[in-house]
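B., you asked whether I could sanity-check this one before it goes into the benchmark set. Here's the sequence:
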Amino acid sequence: MSIQTNIAQHIAEKGYCVIDKALPEHMCQHLYQHISKLPASTFKDMGIGRGDAFRLDKSYRSDTSRWLTGKQPIEQDYLRWMETLRVEINQHLFMGLVDYEAHFAHYAPKGFYKRHLDAFKGSSNRMLTTVYYLNPDWGNHDGGELLMYANELSTMPFQKVAPQMNRLVVFLSDEFPHEVLPAQKDRYSIAGWFRRKA
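And here's what the prediction gave me:
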């Protein structure tokens, strides 16, 4: 069974999955080398809300990001891998996913993102969220975990995911509130969303 098929089955059964050693090792290493060399000036502050409701709020989230353009070969490789996942999920789950967008995310030490949903039912074209981690030698005391909650009423997380190298998290965007805890050192990932037509 391929990793993509395994992910599709987990989404069908539970709505989410956490996969270690998700991508080929050479791709993982090249992505890490790529993100490590990106100038800090290419990362921009991230806001909350969309359209007229968009605003910057450093008390709510303090990460910065750079969108994947696909101009570099390693970015193309990652986007192609995600395209195979999109096709696999559509074949198994008939979700009607049409495209994928993603950005490199950087959390500086003490950086965080408070609890939120990536999409609200019926009001967004984001269907599946992906988070891929690029943090070698991440220790138990380095923090930066992703907390996932079963629903908007839940007060205790059901998943605590450390941002370890080559770990991929995939979940339904409108089902699971989540947050990023402060880390003790720089934390890197690729956050992305599979979308269907609005």
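One thing to flag: The domain at 3-195 is CATH 2.60.120.620 (Jelly Rolls). Otherwise nothing jumped out at me.
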